[in-house]
Amino acid sequence: MLDLETLRIVQASVGALTFVLVYFGTYRSTRAAYARWWSLVVVFSTVSSTLYLLDTGAGVPVADALGNALAVLSGGMAWAAARSLRGLTVSALQLAVVPAVIAVATLLSPRSDAVVAGTGFLVAGMAAQFGLAARRLWILRSEQEGAETGDPRAGIRAALSSVALAASVLAGFYAIRAVAYVALGPESKAYTVWAGPDATTVVVMLAMVTVTYSVTEISRFEVAEAWRRRAERDDLTGLLTRDPFLRQGAVALAATPGAPTSVMLADFDRFKELNDTFGHAEGDAALVAFAAACREVLGPDALACRWGGEEFAAVLEGVDAEAAVAVAGEARPPDGGPCGRCPGGHHGELWARGGLAGEALVDVLERADEALYLAKAAGRDRAVVHGEEPASS
Q1: How many domains does the chain have?
Q2: Is the pLDDT of residue 257 over 70?
Q3: Shared-domain flag, residues 251 and 208
Q4: Same structural domain, 227 and 246
Q5: Residue 367: which domain range?
Q6: How far is CA 124 from CA 115, 173, 203, 342, in A?
Q7: Do 248 and 318 share a domain, yes or no?
Q8: Is residue 390 part of a domain?
Q9: Which residues pair with 352 in a beta bridge?
Q10: SS3 of residue 359 by DSSP
Q11: pLDDT in tens, 347-364
Q12: pLDDT tens digits for 381-393?
């Protein structure tokens, strides 16, 4: 059995080779965020392992604190890599908080020749970070279940499974280490043999190799997904375009039979007059402002789309007619809009509800369109629920 120092040297060597393969072999060709994050995972994990070799001299407390902080930071970057596959970002503050706490806790912890200071904080932090990464990866893996044979997303399942399993193993292993550290003590034989630094170094190397094997395929998947998401979004407003909205909306309605669900259409009052009077740039600004209001009120992941021209559509799950009308009143730019000179002093949205969950979305949209027509005929600037008489504004 190799001693701990030799194992850490081997880990550092494997990490350096892995970085070269991931960064130059995958990231430079794909520019995928996942490959970039995983390159950083390897770098910080390798530097952390190297710092633990500095076990003599006055700088040991600082080396241990940095080693623990960078190890936890590498776990946080594994979480960031998993989030990047859905186009989600992680701020520098989110990544820095836990490592900073670990570093301070390590410096304040009592020292021992038998164990690195702050080990208890380290293993708890690693369990949490890899647990978050595993959760995100399993969610993404489950979303590929419905992909049909031939769909590019179907081929990614095996790669996602291996990475999610590796993250789960690491999260579980560090959780076991944390329990054993507290229950058995860092100097017990059971802890040192099965959950000590030697075993950890081996497990980390195996996980590193396993994940790196799938990096290329996952990075290509990420690039393809980014292009797919871009193709599904309206260039001006950033909302969904019609086809993906119809697909996702139909799934949402079918998934919640019997639950209150509102389908709404919106139109701008006298939009052509705005364009003709002040120019298309002002009209575009109005559309962008309305899309921003939709995202603020409905949430960034809401099913909302630019239906066409100045028309918008949305599916509100779990929202009944009364609540939908209230939402309609909120989802509008301030009076005067972004240009401050719209006809009538404001951008008038015409919202309409039609249908319940379990019905075909296209049928519900037809009734919402009827309500939208009634809203226009009743004087504009009002919300109309299908089947009800238009109220005065």
Answers
A1: 2
A2: no
A3: no
A4: no
A5: 242-385
A6: 16, 10, 16, 57
A7: yes
A8: no
A9: 265, 384
A10: coil
A11: 334 444 444 445 678 888
A12: 777 777 665 555 4
